[in-house]
Write a structure and sequence with these properties.
The protein has 141 residues and is an all-alpha fold. It is 66% helix and 3% strand. It contains 4 helices and 2 strands, in the order αββααα. The chain has helices at 2-23, 47-67, 76-95, 111-140; strands at 36-37, 40-41. α1 packs across α4, α2 packs across α3 and α3 packs antiparallel against α4 (111-140). The longest helix is centred in the C-terminal third of the chain and has 30 residues, at 111-140.
């Protein structure tokens, strides 16, 4: 369980750091992280929304650290339920919107779609799986 949990902590912290970088004007990696329609992004996240996502990711990392027993805020059952919410979020992201993102997307030829298939969806599946394993050990042991 420890390895699954640590992997998620590292992934969450790295992705949060990337969002913080983007929120403060960083451009690296931006070309392939937002789906586009006819060359125009489907949405343009602002600084605040990007920082909110980063905060959420850091919160998810903290939940995993708590699951390891590094601190004792919150009961195991509450942590378990939050882990299930994380599993649901990343499972739903893996499935996608059936149009632009996820396993069942229709638009598969864009740069984003290629990265989504090769990296983002497998990463979301890994996060969901690792979070479920963490949940299992938190609540069942």
């Amino acid at each position: 369980m420890i390895i699954f949990t640590i992997v998620n902590c590292i992934v969450f912290c790295l992705i949060a750091a990337l969002h913080i970088y983007w929120a403060f004007g960083g451009k690296w990696g931006m070309a392939n992280v937002i789906p586009k329609l006819e060359g125009k992004p489907l949405f343009q996240p602002g600084r605040i929304s990007t920082l909110i996502v980063a905060s959420g990711l850091l919160g998810f990392a903290a939940i995993h650290v708590r699951a390891l027993g590094c601190f004792t805020i919150g009961s195991a059952s509450i942590i378990g339920y939050i882990l299930l919410i994380i599993v649901a979020i990343f499972s739903i992201r893996s499935i996608g919107d059936f149009n632009y993102i996820g396993l069942f997307k229709k638009k598969k030829s864009s740069s984003f779609a290629i990265w989504d298939t090769k990296l983002y969806v497998p990463l979301c599946i890994l996060i969901a799986f690792n979070s479920f394993i963490t949940y299992w050990f938190v609540l069942c042991n």
